[in-house]
């Protein structure tokens, strides 16, 4: 099945709702953007501060319109608050692969299990609806929190791209870790865990 970038894709369970990111979502994410700039310490695209957040959302929406990415806003049903954002990107129908990332949450949502619920819904859709064979995750190799979160959902480390790209707002280059989950791993154990 090919990904329909025009659909109003909503993924949800009893804990979380993911829906397409919209320009009006600046208002929902602004508090995190203004008060938690460290959230984007390892990000290649900053969303700290109102102008950066507007730019971040506009670029995400343009990527969706270009049919290269599908960004979501994350709503925590327990707190009834918007928690952050995540997206599918690098979607390759011919190879049946995609990447899952650009994920960030406000401090109060980290370590609550929200990320596991989000990733379950996204992985379930990618493997079971889109028929993907491989989902890839990437992060700055220094971002221990993100790497631990990816491994906790069943990602397997594949390797590190050394001196891969410059950090945001810096000439210093970062190493990028690559992790993944395969279709067979999803059905064998990741889904149940």
Task: Give a quick precis of the structure.
The protein has helices at 26-35, 50-65, 114-129, 144-152, 183-190, and strands spanning 11-12, 16-20, 69-76, 81-92, 97-105, 134-140, 156-166, 173-182.
The biggest sheet amounts to: 8 strands, mixed
Pick out the low-confidence regions: none
Provide a count of the helices.
5
Helices and strands, in order, run as EEHHEEEHEHEEH
Instruction: Give the strand content.
Output: 25-35%
Quickly give the structural class: alpha+beta
- How much helical structure, as a percent, in the residues? 25-40%
What is the overall silhouette?
A: globular
Physical arrangement of strands within the biggest beta sheet: 1-2-3-4-5-6-8-7
Distance between the termini: 26 Å
Number of E strands = 8
C-alpha Rg (nearest Å): 16 Å
Mean pLDDT: 95
What does this structure look like?
The chain has 193 residues and is an alpha+beta fold. It is built from five helices and eight strands; from the N terminus they run ββααβββαβαββα. α1 crosses α2. The mean pLDDT is 95.
């Amino acid at each position: 099945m090919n990904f329909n970038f025009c659909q109003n894709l909503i993924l949800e369970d009893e804990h979380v709702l993911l829906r397409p990111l919209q320009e009006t979502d600046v208002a929902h994410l602004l508090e995190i953007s203004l008060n938690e700039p460290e959230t984007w310490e390892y990000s290649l695209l900053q969303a700290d501060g109102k102008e950066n957040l507007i730019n971040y959302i506009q670029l995400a929406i343009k990527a969706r319109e270009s049919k290269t990415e599908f960004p979501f806003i994350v709503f925590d049903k327990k707190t009834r608050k918007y928690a952050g954002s995540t997206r599918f990107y690098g979607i390759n129908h011919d190879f049946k692969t995609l990447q899952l990332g650009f994920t960030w949450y406000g401090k109060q949502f980290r370590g609550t299990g929200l990320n596991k619920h989000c990733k379950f819904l996204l992985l379930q859709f990618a493997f079971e609806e889109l028929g993907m064979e491989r989902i890839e995750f990437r992060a700055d190799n220094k971002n221990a929190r993100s790497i631990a979160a990816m491994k906790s959902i069943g990602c397997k480390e594949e390797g590190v791209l050394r001196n891969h790209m410059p950090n945001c707002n810096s000439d210093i280059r970062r190493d990028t870790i690559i992790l993944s989950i395969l279709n067979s791993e999803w059905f064998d154990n990741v889904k149940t865990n």
